Amino acid sequence: MKIRPSYVVGLLALLALPFLIRGFVPASEKYYLHLLIQILLWSFVYTGWSLMGRFGLTSFGHGAFTGIGAYITVMLWNFAGLTPLIGIPVAVLTAVAAGLMVGYPCFNLRITGHYFALLTLAFTEFVRLCIVGFRNWTGGSLGTQPRRYGDGISLYAVQFEPDRLLAYFIALALWLVGLFIWHRVDRSMDRYALDAASQDEDAAASVGIDVTRAKLKITAISSGMCAFGGAMYGQYQMYIGPETVAGLGLSLAMVFACIAGGIGVLFGPTFGALFTQLLSETLRILIQGSTWLKANFGSNALVLDQAIYGLLLILFIIYMPKGILGTLQHKLGKRG
Amino acid sequence: MDCSLDIFFVEALLNGVLLAGLLALLALGLNLIFGVIDVTWICYAELVMVGMYGFFWLTKAMGGPNLPVWMFVLAGLFAILVVALAGALLHVLVIRPVLDQAPINQLLVTGGVLFVLQASATLAFGIDFKNIGVHMGSLRTGDMSFSWSKILTFGVSLVAMLVMWLFLTRTYIGTAIRAIAQDRQIMPLMGVDARKVYVVTSGIGGALAGLAASLMVFQYDIYPQVGLQFGPLLFMICVLGGLGNMLGGFVAAFVMAQFIAVGSSCLQTEWGYAVAFLFFMVVIFIRPQGLFGVRS
Q1: CA–CA distance, B250 with B291 (Å, rounded to integer)
Q2: What does the pLDDT look like over A14-67, one tens digit per residue?
Q3: At a CB cut-off of 8 Å and minimum separation 6, what does A216 contact?
Q4: Residue A154 forms beta bridges with which residues?
Q5: Residues near A291 by Cβ (< 8 Å), separated by ≥ 6?
Q6: Does the distance separating the beta carbons of B280 and A304 come in below 8 Å?
Q7: Average pLDDT of the residues in B219-232
Q8: Contact map slice: B 196-235 vs A, CB within 8 A
Q9: H/E run at residue B281
Q10: Which of B40, B97, B112 lies at the smallest CB-CB distance from A311?
Q11: CB count in 10 Å sphere of residue B7
């Protein structure tokens, strides 16, 4: 990996950021760190999604992987007393196995486009329904909490929520790993194979590309990343619910963020996460500050961000299908 | 909770048949759109939600639940009109600009519409459950009971599907719609204005959603997320029947409805759905073109 000076500066800035926050706005340190952690954790998950999305494998099923990751980890911890140090790998492997089980027939039968999207949608719903259905363990649609261990900071229980600074660095490390995986995939032979397959599967197969194998590989990486991200999100939030770590809404949010940011670009999904999180935070603050909105819509005004997401999603696909970063890169690349 | 071959099992089976009528009607609209325009409206269930709120709003505006029958018919016509208009608008404003893009983008763009519609409904009506407040009672035979609203829904759905079939086979525009569905490239050369056919089809698809909505308000509560309750199921039915295959969708609706009705009565509602989705995935892996689809 070529180390660009801009990357080093950026990384140093990110390492210094929490201390700058502590220095300048100590009163709302927790809030800002929470916002950054959310952005980083979701960036990791979205980057995982984009690994498949960029090759035309538009999945609505990744909410299932985050859900499997978070729920299996917490269930093993709460009911079997198994440390997430083992639980998370088990959850990730389960998600990868599930991804391969859904993926193999799909790729073998060349299910793509609409059919792939709708099939993975069924898979997401199936997992969400299972989570709700096992309500004696999972708490049903109300969700559940991982059992707190000691004072809430423990390597054994992989709990770190009270120490926001620690959580920030964990999320940052995770995010960097995600970017590294993306980069490795981008530089691999499989990337060219998958690019070719997404253009014309028959032609790709005819020059000796094992399309199914390449797709399965990327599915395993992508589902594993999402499961790991889901598990870490659950450990950080100390709460998991079928709508917050699984389900169709989350899957759609992944798709939207990646499209807004740009699917085929390294920082696209990160930018998407940044953009969506900041958008909802800004709107939340605007709504809280606006007496007119509160008087007219009350707490319902909180869904304004959803309306704006939807509208932007439409506009992005019509006018900017490459996403914000993708379009920027394209324009800059033309000039330079 | 237990499952044995008794009178309740028969009741569940028959309720499944009644549910299938409604699902078949919903699937018909979606299949029509897919077959003709080759676009999946992922927000189809949300259009139904718009129709339900339209119906609810008009009946409330006319003075609450105790209304003569013709007023309910009026509210139904209003809902059909509103959603038909919404369908045509959806096509012109959102689908038409992306018709040349990858199919998946057309699906995603309607995902954006889904967000907008849900949020708008929340802003306009709030998140609490609404009900038009009409109780039709039930038909009792032996130990079984079937609510009249379900029977009404079933009957109207069947009639509507019959009318649609006559429309598609006996009228000029219906024939043009079927022709476009068969060959999208050739028909414009034969003098059929594809753009017009697309708008009309979208309007009809919307009207079917509006009709389904006017029937559903008698059975279900109305809330902004109601579309997520049956939307995914609807796509499963369409894919199972072969996207665009209207007859296949009809049969698939009956299959899936049985899973849900019997599963819900034997186990719990979620498990009925979960089993139906599992069945769907297994079938697709065996027959990727759907139960009745033709492999292209």
Answers
A1: 11
A2: 999 998 998 888 888 889 999 999 999 999 999 999 999 999 899 998 999 999
A3: A100, A103, A104, A107
A4: A159
A5: none
A6: no
A7: 89
A8: 224, 228, 232, 235
A9: helix B269-286
A10: B112
A11: 11
How many Cβ contacts (< 8 angstroms) between chains A and B? Answer: 141
Of A297, A132, B12, residue with least CA distance to A288? A297
Q: Which of A130, A164, A217 is nearest to A18 (CA)?
A: A164
Greatest Cα-to-Cα distance within chain B, rounded to the nearest angstrom: 61
Six-digit token string for A219: 């599915």
E-strand ranges in A118-256 read: none
Q: Which two tokens stand for residue A216?
A: 């399965």
**For the residues of B22-39, what is the DSSP string, one character each?**
HHHHHHHHHHHHHHHH--
CB contact under 8 A, A317 and B235: no
**Tokens in use for A258?**
């990646």
Is the interface score ipTM higher than 0.95?
A: no
SS3 A187: coil
Cα(A248)–Cα(A62) distance, rounded to whole angstroms?
9
Helix A211-237 × helix A164-186 angle, to 10° = 170
Q: B222 by DSSP, 3-state: which? A: strand
Name A200's Cβ contacts closer than 8 Å, sequence gap at least 6. Answer: none
CB A54 within 8 A of CB A73: no
- Tell if the pTM clears 0.90, that is, is over it: no
What's the pLDDT tens digit per position in A151-189? Answer: 878 888 888 888 889 999 999 999 999 999 999 999 998
What string of DSSP letters covers A264-284?
Answer: TSTTHHHHHHHHHHHHHHHHH
Question: How confident is the model over B115-158, as pLDDT tens digits?
Answer: 899 999 999 998 889 888 888 888 888 777 888 888 999 999 99
Write the single-letter amino acid at B103: P
If phi > 0 it is left, if psi is from -120 to 50 it is alpha, else beta; for residue B259 that is: alpha
Please compute the mean of the pLDDT values over residues A129-136 and round it to a whole number. Answer: 89
Handedness of CA B108, B113, B118, B123 (dihedral sign): positive
pLDDT (0 to 100) of residue A336: 43
**What whole-number distance in Å separates Cα of residue B17 and Cα of residue A174?**
51
Contact (CB, 8 A) for B46 and B26 = no
Q: Using alpha carbons, select from A180, A139, A170 the residue that is nearest to residue A37.
A: A170
Whether residue B271 and residue A114 make contact (CB cut-off 8 A), yes or no, is no
**φ, ψ (nearest 5 deg) of residue B140:** -110, 125
Q: Do the beta carbons of residue B280 and residue B239 sit within 8 Å?
A: yes
Amino acid at B32: L
Q: HSE-up of B223 (CA within 13 Å, CB side)?
A: 11
Residue of B nearest to A307 (CA): B116
**Cα(B144)–Cα(B281) distance, rounded to whole angstroms?**
33
Q: How far lies A140's CA from each of A73, A145, A148, A245, in Å?
A: 16, 12, 20, 13
Q: Any idea which residue has 């309500």 for tokens?
A: A135
Tokens describing residue A244? 């917050």
CB atoms B232 and A121 under 8 Å:
yes
